Amino acid sequence: MTDTAHPAIPTSGQVTLPDGRVELAPGTPPPSGPYANEDLLPVPTARRTWTTYNFSALWVGMAHNTASWTLASGLIAVGMDWKQAVFTIALANLIVLVPMLLTGHAGPKYGIPFPVFARASFGVRGANLPAVVRALVACGWFGIQTWIGGEAIYFLAGKLIGDSWTDAAHVGGHAWTMWLSFAIFWALQVAIIHRGMETIRRFENWAAPFVLVGALVMLWWMSSKAGGVGPLFGQPSRLGWGGEFWKLFWPSLMGMIGFWSTLSLNIPDFTRYGKSQKAQTWGQALGLPTTMTLFAFLSVLVTSGSQAVYGEPVWDPVQLAAKTDNVVGLLYALVTVLVATLSVNIAANLVSPAFDFSNVAPRKVSFRTGALITAVLAVLIFPWKLYSDPQSYIFTWLGLVGGLLGTVAGILVADYWLLRRTRLDLADLYRAGGRYWYTGGWNWRAVVAFLAGGVLAIGGASLKPLIDGRPVPALSPLADYGWAVGLGTSSVLYLALTLASGRDRRTG
């Protein structure tokens, strides 16, 4: 089939409100057919009600979780001091905020989720490529968080049952009781999925402040163990500020960016409910960098304290909490981890892949089915290997995620902002033969840009501990800059291919 996009055709069947938001014209039937279902349709402006506070609160809830804690504490474990770790994380979140706001713009303006937004650049069918990539990354995160929750159950049960639980026979490198704890936490989340989203929302309302209090309690406990806050600030960097630090800084920065590169793509899933562009812009700007930096600050101080007390940094908060002899304190800490992991994992790592898998086959895969697919794939990704040590967690997992998703972000931003000037046709996003159909539903320019950017971004990366070696050793010099390489390459190549084909796409 030939390329059938029609950039000269004006948008129809939609109205633009004075504040710039767009919705389907009154009386216009909603899109239907094989590329639409209720979850993927535009949110009417009357239901776009999220305020600045709502978006800030969203980021408070997202950031206060165990994975965010290990993000910062892991930098201490690989040799940084508290100042270097906080600096790296603060800078990374300021950088990733930029594509977060750029891609989030389409949400309040058009009320569409990420998979539908991606159809403008990749094609109605081609959007399944970035959607599935994003979904598989979410599966990895879901598995890692589930492993963390299983650890909390394992240590909690060990304190209550005794050595017979913690010293059980090992299978596959871990006690069989750890595998059982992992399975229990996995099943608990599947049960909540089955009950529906209302159960999840009730958890989210109080989990974030609960976790923040838990982090402050751990800070107080560690400072008392260390003899004051002085030792927490006094732990020296093993790297200094010379060449050794900067050699570690760049891959660490890319890894920190990679942590939220997932949300920088699917943030329209949330901003589509925004009351205005101002609400999503200020809400995210106030919520993301400040919250992540504060939580990182707490994390690195506690981890530095563990280095002073135990002679080595304990980067995993579950294992650190297990070192306390205070049963009440231990129970509070581990229950905090369980609650936070449960609420954040389902909200942050289940909503998006459920939509993404639904986008592959809207008539056959519902939101609930997509969520169950995510839960199963999360186990098959072997999250215990990804989380086995801070080196593999930061440089392998986060580095690969950042490089791959940065490639998608580059295409989305270039298409929406530079070529279309933020103008989309809502109806055509859901139908075959329209301006976003391209060739058989695929825009080959976006696919080529994605593949080229992806190869350059992650081709030279180390995949340890999953496998030995690098896929393309000649590209190893680019591996430390994966997110930037992927975003830059894909955006420039996509623009070049589009302009070379003589297509002016500013009108859609």
From TrEMBL:
<dbReference type="GO" id="GO:0005886">
    <property type="term" value="C:plasma membrane"/>
</dbReference>
<feature type="transmembrane region" description="Helical">
    <location>
        <begin position="288"/>
        <end position="310"/>
    </location>
</feature>
<dbReference type="InterPro" id="IPR001248">
    <property type="entry name" value="Pur-cyt_permease"/>
</dbReference>
<feature type="transmembrane region" description="Helical">
    <location>
        <begin position="176"/>
        <end position="194"/>
    </location>
</feature>
<feature type="transmembrane region" description="Helical">
    <location>
        <begin position="440"/>
        <end position="461"/>
    </location>
</feature>
<feature type="transmembrane region" description="Helical">
    <location>
        <begin position="330"/>
        <end position="355"/>
    </location>
</feature>
<dbReference type="InterPro" id="IPR045225">
    <property type="entry name" value="Uracil/uridine/allantoin_perm"/>
</dbReference>
<feature type="transmembrane region" description="Helical">
    <location>
        <begin position="393"/>
        <end position="419"/>
    </location>
</feature>
<keyword id="KW-0472">Membrane</keyword>
<feature type="transmembrane region" description="Helical">
    <location>
        <begin position="367"/>
        <end position="387"/>
    </location>
</feature>
<comment type="similarity">
    <text>Belongs to the purine-cytosine permease (2.A.39) family.</text>
</comment>
<feature type="transmembrane region" description="Helical">
    <location>
        <begin position="206"/>
        <end position="223"/>
    </location>
</feature>
<feature type="transmembrane region" description="Helical">
    <location>
        <begin position="481"/>
        <end position="500"/>
    </location>
</feature>
<dbReference type="InterPro" id="IPR012681">
    <property type="entry name" value="NCS1"/>
</dbReference>
<feature type="transmembrane region" description="Helical">
    <location>
        <begin position="57"/>
        <end position="78"/>
    </location>
</feature>
<feature type="transmembrane region" description="Helical">
    <location>
        <begin position="84"/>
        <end position="102"/>
    </location>
</feature>
<feature type="transmembrane region" description="Helical">
    <location>
        <begin position="135"/>
        <end position="156"/>
    </location>
</feature>
<dbReference type="GO" id="GO:0015205">
    <property type="term" value="F:nucleobase transmembrane transporter activity"/>
</dbReference>
<feature type="transmembrane region" description="Helical">
    <location>
        <begin position="248"/>
        <end position="267"/>
    </location>
</feature>
<keyword id="KW-1133">Transmembrane helix</keyword>
<keyword id="KW-0812">Transmembrane</keyword>
<protein>
    <submittedName>
        <fullName>NCS1 family nucleobase:cation symporter-1</fullName>
    </submittedName>
</protein>
<dbReference type="Pfam" id="PF02133">
    <property type="entry name" value="Transp_cyt_pur"/>
</dbReference>
